[in-house]
């Protein structure tokens, strides 16, 4: 679509340019032609001015001479006595001398009847003496008492010349005529070879002088009968054959006149400039060939058209560049818009994702809060359950001895009343031992209550296990379980906190008791051995073992399979962290023969240090 539009526009531009080229070409050609013709005309005008000046100079030189000669006594005497041979001879010699002196063509004297009686060329072959020139206008003018002027081809000499004549007056009467003929060949010779053709035409339009010999005696105007008759009357051209030049006049252009002359080598167009010389009776014309002016105009036109073409080409290049630039900018703009659109899209997507994330985060936070709340609730519930358990255990542990103490005390009172002091003493010592037992329980309770972050130190396993048994004894008993203890011949001493280690052992053994409760084999084995710098304590029970699926999770806080009220799921988690605090490890596994094995690994303490610590 775009390219079709472009090509359509291109055709229009091409047509416009072509039209502009035609208009410019025509205008430039007109202006250039006019300028070239003006220049040619101005050169022709100069040539014309020079030619006219040369001719009139020549005329002026000779014009007064016939009168001077006519005033000569000798000439007057001759015309008074025309037949006087001595006078004739003297006049002939005089005329010849003057002719030579003035560098003229011929000088001669005519009587009133037109007969020539003396001439400068009296002694040459073509002597004028005896000739009669009454038909010449210069004779007629002089006879009328005027100065005569005429140009013509000599009928006797057959040489062209300009004739000046003057009457010879004696006592106010014309007695004869003096004629002075001037050669014009020298002037004409200077016209040959120039760029312009200079011609002199008579009033009938016949060429009398010309740089080109072939144009002589040819008419620029048609040779009508009138013209031929007038020419024949004065015998201006003697017997020369007159003809018409094949001339056609063109339309005047900007004040210039044109004529075209057909020749052997085709027609030539000339610019014609003319000036009349009324005194001389002729018209001087300069014909300038227009070929070079027209060629120059054509060259200038072609140059202008080439310039125009070049300018158009440059314009086209500039336009093309600009359109390409605009196209590129448009492409960049659309690319930018596309980019911006994409960025906006992405931003919107991101914002949506962000909002979604924020929502999810808020949801997570709420869930987390709910979880925390649940955990807190659970802890609270656990605490209450533990408190309940502990209260139950405590009341059980304390009520029994208290009941026994009451019985023994009552019995002792009865026995004392009966005077059986020895038996009463026995009862009192039993009361004392029961009080000891209750004190022990209380001590353990106190141990529990102690802050856990006690300093670590060497703890003999024998003591730790013994204290533990004090606490878990009743639980073992209630579960019907027995604890087999094997600490080796040299019971190890570990680096730990005594109370917390005991807490761990209580927890692990309690779990073992839970596991074996109600089972056939209820013997729990606690063994310990030293391996280099480490001491391993294992508690193995013949219970159902830990299902592999939950083996990884039993150390998680609140993980319990014992149901609400029975297990908090905190025991192993706390134990794990306590052992970690000691720099040791607590792990669980199932024994190949069945049942669970819990292993505590701790750093071993040197006996000497342990003893020193004690
Ligand atoms: P609780 O004893 O309150 O459930 P614990 O953290 O002590 O919490 O124990 C977590 C869980 O580990 C128990 O609920 C039980 O499933 C499992 N477990 C612990 N000791 C043993 C054992 N000796 N044999 C089998 N399972 C055990």
If you had to describe this structure to a student in words, what would you say it looks like?
It is built from 13 helices and 20 strands. The chain is an alpha+beta fold. Among the domains are: 65-183, Beta-Lactamase, CATH 3.30.450.20; 454-613, Histidine kinase-like ATPase, C-terminal domain (Heat Shock Protein 90). The strands form 5 sheets. The protein has a 6-stranded antiparallel beta sheet with strand order 7-6-13-12-11-10. A 5-stranded antiparallel beta sheet has the order 2-1-5-4-3, with helices on both faces. Strands 15-17-18-20-19 form a 5-stranded mixed beta sheet. A hairpin with a 6-residue loop joins β3 and β4 (160-170). The two termini are 106 Å apart. Mean pLDDT is 87; it is low at 1-5 and 447-451. The protein binds adenosine-5'-diphosphate. Adenosine-5'-diphosphate binds at residues 507, 511-512, 515, 541, 543, 545-546, 554, 559-562, 567-569, 571-573, 596.
């Amino acid at each position: 679509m775009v390219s079709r539009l472009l090509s359509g526009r291109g055709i229009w531009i091409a047509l416009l340019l072509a039209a502009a080229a035609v208009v410019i070409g025509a205008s430039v050609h007109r202006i250039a032609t006019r300028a070239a013709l003006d220049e040619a005309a101005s050169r022709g005008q100069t040539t014309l001015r020079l030619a006219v000046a040369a001719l009139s100079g020549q005329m002026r030189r000779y014009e007064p001479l016939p009168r001077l000669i006519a005033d000569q006594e000798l000439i007057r005497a001759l015309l008074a006595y025309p037949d006087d041979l001595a006078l004739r001879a003297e006049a002939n010699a005089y005329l010849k001398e003057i002719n030579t002196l003035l560098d003229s063509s011929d000088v001669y004297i005519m009587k009133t009847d037109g007969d020539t009686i003396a001439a400068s060329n009296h002694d040459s072959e073509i002597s004028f003496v005896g000739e009669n020139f009454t038909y010449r206008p210069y004779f007629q003018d002089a006879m009328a008492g005027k100065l005569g002027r005429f140009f013509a081809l000599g009928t006797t000499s057959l040489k062209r010349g300009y004739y000046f004549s003057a009457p010879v007056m004696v006592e106010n009467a014309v007695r004869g005529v003096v004629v002075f003929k001037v050669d014009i060949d020298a002037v004409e010779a200077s016209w040959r070879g120039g760029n312009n053709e200079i011609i002199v035409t008579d009033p009938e339009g016949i060429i009398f002088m010309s740089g080109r010999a072939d144009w002589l005696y040819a008419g620029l105007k048609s040779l009508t009968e009138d013209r031929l008759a007038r020419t024949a009357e004065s015998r201006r051209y003697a017997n020369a054959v007159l003809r018409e030049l094949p001339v056609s006049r063109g339309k005047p252009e900007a004040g210039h006149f044109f004529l075209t002359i057909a020749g052997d080598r085709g027609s030539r167009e000339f610019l014609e400039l003319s000036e009349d010389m009324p005194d001389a009776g002729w018209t001087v014309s300069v014909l300038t060939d227009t070929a070079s002016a027209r060629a120059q105009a054509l060259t200038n036109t072609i140059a202008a058209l080439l310039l125009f073409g070049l300018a158009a080409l440059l314009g086209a290049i500039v336009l093309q560049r600009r359109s390409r630039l605009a196209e590129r900018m448009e492409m960049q703009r659309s690319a930018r818009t596309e980019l911006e659109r994409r960025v906006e899209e992405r931003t919107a997507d991101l914002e949506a994702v962000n909002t979604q994330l924020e929502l999810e985060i808020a949801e997570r936070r709420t869930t987390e809060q709910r979880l925390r709340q649940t955990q807190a609730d659970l802890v609270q519930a656990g605490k209450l359950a533990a408190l309940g358990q502990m209260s139950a255990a405590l009341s059980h542990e304390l009520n029994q001895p208290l009941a026994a103490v009451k019985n023994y005390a009552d019995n002792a009172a009865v026995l004392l009343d009966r005077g059986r002091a020895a038996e009463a003493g026995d009862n009192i010592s039993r009361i004392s031992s029961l009080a000891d037992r209750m004190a022990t329980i209380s001590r353990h309770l106190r141990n529990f209550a102690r802050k856990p972050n006690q300093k670590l130190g060497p703890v003999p396993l024998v003591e730790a296990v013994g204290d533990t048994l004090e606490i878990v004894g009743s639980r073992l008993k209630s579960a019907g379980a027995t604890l087999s203890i094997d600490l080796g011949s040299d019971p190890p001493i570990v680096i730990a906190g005594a109370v917390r280690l005991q807490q761990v052992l209580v927890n692990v053994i309690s779990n073992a008791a839970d596991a074996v409760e109600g089972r056939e084999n209820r013997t729990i084995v606690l063994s310990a051995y030293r391996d280099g710098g480490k001491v391993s304590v294992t508690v193995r029970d013949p219970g159902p073992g830990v299902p592999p699926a939950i083996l990884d999770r039993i150390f998680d806080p609140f993980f319990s399979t014992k149901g609400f009220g029975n297990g908090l799921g905190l025991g192993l988690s706390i134990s794990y962290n306590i052992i970690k605090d000691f720099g040791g490890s607590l792990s669980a596994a199932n024994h190949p023969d069945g049942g669970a094995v819990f292993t505590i690994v701790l750093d071993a303490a040197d006996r000497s240090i342990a003893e020193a610590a004690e």
